Here is the input.
Amino acid sequence: MDFRDAAARDQEEPWCRLADSFVRPRDAGHRPLAYLAGHSLGLCHRGVRSCLERELDAWGRLGIQGYEQATPSWLRYAHDLRPLLAPLLGAHPDEIAVLNSLTVNLHFLLARFYRPTRNRRQILIDKPVFPSDRHALVSQIHWHGGDPATDLVEIGPAPGHSRLDPDVLTEAITAAGERLALVWVGGVNYLTGQKLPLARLARATHAVGASFGVDLAHAIGNVPLALDREGVDFAVWCSYKYLNGGPGAVGGLYVRADPVDGVPPPMLAGWWGHEEKTRFLMGPDFQPEAGALGFAVSNVPVLATAPLWATLPLFAEHSLDRLITRREAVIAFLREQLSLQPVAGLECITPEEPLERGAQLSFRVSPPLPEGADFIRALGSLGVVGDWREPRIHRIAFAPLYNGFTDAVRWHEAMCRLARRGRT
Ligand SMILES: Cc1ncc(COP(=O)(O)O)c(C=O)c1O
Here is the structure.
């Protein structure tokens, strides 16, 4: 398939109209870039502007009355997004809250779920872990007077491998046994793109009496999730990747209705988590709202939440399963191109099996390809946007809402050119 055939396949309806509803960044000559960085920041949907303008208009017209009279009402502005998120998470809306950002939510949930005792104080995590998660976990261990050298157990791939063997992870959980307070993993790993078998890990975690939590930053809107069925106790996500909520968009958290250690009262409270019907009586005592909403602390940042009202309905209109089927056709095509015309210096480290990954493909890069900022600059000059993470990893993603065959062809052609250039 050449560029023209790829473009023709991308014209298929209804996908083409959906992809065209996103604004594409352009180069200096105004040509659209092949944007493959949706795992980092999703593209701007054209409907976002009108959602923002609607709230600006309501603010101007209604002032404080917007909390009651704006549509949707600002009082429930984030809460009312929960039914749109529930199918993406495989959860009940009452188990979801839309608020804060990922690391902040992780701290709030750790305040509830990490309550170490003398004997049960270890946290087990997968490697490579996103640094912010590790910072949060280590600081919580310190906060409880523990020592990360003994209280943090990190399980990574075997030396020389990129894939983390779920058997090894499960065995480590079982071996930690009653010393384990909780397990925290990435649903889809931020660096390698590997998707972990959550149900299996949750079962092993519960068997030793610990809680199971998941970072869904790279999973939500990317892979099908069934948190209730899989036995996840708690989870957090951000909305600026596959949910296309915009830079720093409001994230969310999930708390199972019946987690392994009982129904959860939030440990850290604020007025937005107080039960809604009596919140404005302004009483001194905290009465938490039922379910995950009890974890809300502050009032809703309406303008930072507005884009989600444009983008979450897209997942209701276009089934994620169908979008994934199309994305898999694009990824299979790209893999075929790479086997017909391999790129020197490029080794894919993401599992090939679709059940073990999502939209992201990660590649280890070596000469003749350039590295770091030079690599990204050279790729950009050929009209392609991806990213670079140490150690020498190039990440791209085929976001199911807007990336197609043309993006795959452009990336592959650009990589071949970079390798040829590096050899001369
Ligand atoms: C896997 C993962 N965890 C945590 C974070 C941190 O997110 P936030 O800045 O919203 O706290 C990110 C950000 O990209 C991430 O990719």
Remarks:
- The domain at 53-315 is CATH 3.40.640.10 (Aspartate Aminotransferase; domain 2).
